[in-house]
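INTERNAL AUDIT FORM
Audit reference: QA-55
Scope: verify that the stored structure record matches its stored sequence.
Auditor: D.O.
Record contents follow.
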Amino acid sequence: MNILLLLTVGLVFLGAGYLFYGKMISRIFDENNQNPTPAMAMEDGRDYVPTRTGIAFSHHFASIAGAGPIVGPTVAMLFGIIPVWLWLLLGTVFFGAVHDYTCLFTSLREKGRSMAEVSRSTLGRAGFFLFIAFTTVMILLVTSAFLGLSATALTSLVPVAEMKISGSGFLQTIVGADGIERAKIGGIASTSVIILTLFAPLIGWMLYRRNIRSAIVTPVAIMVVSMSVVFGVFFPVSVGMHTWMIILTVYVVIACGAPVWTLLQPRDFMNSFILYAGIALLLAGIVVAGLKGAVTQAPAFNVAQGNLKLGMIWPFLFITVACGAISGFHSLVAGGTVSKQIRLESDARKIGYGGMVLEGVFAMVVLLTLAAGLSFDSYMQIVWPESGPSNPILAFALSMGSLLHMAFGLPVAFGTIFGILMVEGFVVTTLDTAVRLNRYLFEELWSVLFKKVPAILQSYIFNAALSAGLMLWLSWTNAFTLIWPIFGAANQLLAALGLIAVSVWLAKRKKPTLFTLIPAILMLVTTVWALWVMLFDKYIPAGKMPLIITDILLMVLALAVVAVAFKEMGKLLRPSRP
């Protein structure tokens, strides 16, 4: 099947969803640009800052995109191209974009409050606690999955034959016991990550302390990114996977307590050039390669093998592909910062619904790149090996290299290095952001559980170390392929909770709720069934106690959400006394 055909149909469907379904939702919310937004009414120069639409959109998209739309479709392609492609399209338009847009608009109408605070007002104190608990567990799982993924990617070795080069060329290589010469692709990314981290405080100082114009700082940042890759080619850092896991854990404990302008913001600033350039290259590559007749190498349907290795297509496809279809994490971004930056209510649809549509495009492009750029045998060996760790980041990177070679004749090694850097920088930033957020959430959780919070539980070091330590423990003792599905379940449960909170908010205002309730109910049923199957088919037989406990906790939280929602909806439906 020609990849350009799949891209064209997908773009038309996603565009129509934005134009028509997104517009319908805006009418339900009575979108009105005459209503002052929190940024305009409560401007304080710090948190509430009216921001131009393009800048607010860029911040939102950079926060929600990254590794998720790459890893999920890469793992799920085991089911075949068409099932994943269909879920990306339908999930984006009717689930994910609805979730992001409605959570953002609800926060907008609630003076920029977070979704946790909105849950407190719509579902009561129990809803607030459940939202905090869901978020804490979900972030713990995503950091555990990404820690293992990152360490695996940073130690990736690629046979030089895979990159269509003879001999070592310009790459540093190693010859294994099997006699195969492999390039230290992961070492290049390792060096680049280290250099970008070392230069981040300088870029942050220039941008946020000296307030030097971005037009001046941008060339410096691009030069640092470019030089980090060049240094990586000649001086790749090679350490073991578990060593990298320890290094990254120590780093995030330090980084999540540092001012955001020193590491987090400047790293995002530098990595954004790699991300946007990568998306543009992939889109152009699919168009050009498609015009040249490039077709998919993976099967259209591979449900039997997917059922065997990953689990039944329902529910496991729908929790494996989270970011790119629907993600509860996005509600944290929407209510956390974006709702405090929007100048006009009409911007919420562009940023909330439109941002999710763009992420859906990104995930679809990743799927088509994999399908066309990598043989299915190679895909299986890398992502679903009989022995050794799964490495979906490497699979994506190799497919990107092959696609750009087909389209433009670029060396496969160039695209492969670019692909692994495109993901790796954001995985490390995700670890920093998520552990920082989990530190805040633990502090919130203690305030709910204790009337007088003990001093140690208020300590930044304790909460950061707790977040990072649990992350390392789960990642060290469990393979990525075991952690990713339960992360997807937690993420989708968080999305369901957000949609339920929005549904109650709408019901209290006598507004239609089916467009939010239906996806909420479907995601609740899907995730609870997935958790039940994983518990008895995977975790209990394998004796994975941490995952058994997490699985049961998530099911209890899900049932609690249903109970709280029924209670609140019952109050609304009960006839009032005269």
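Auditor finding: record pair retrieved intact. The chain has a mean pLDDT of 88.
Action required: none
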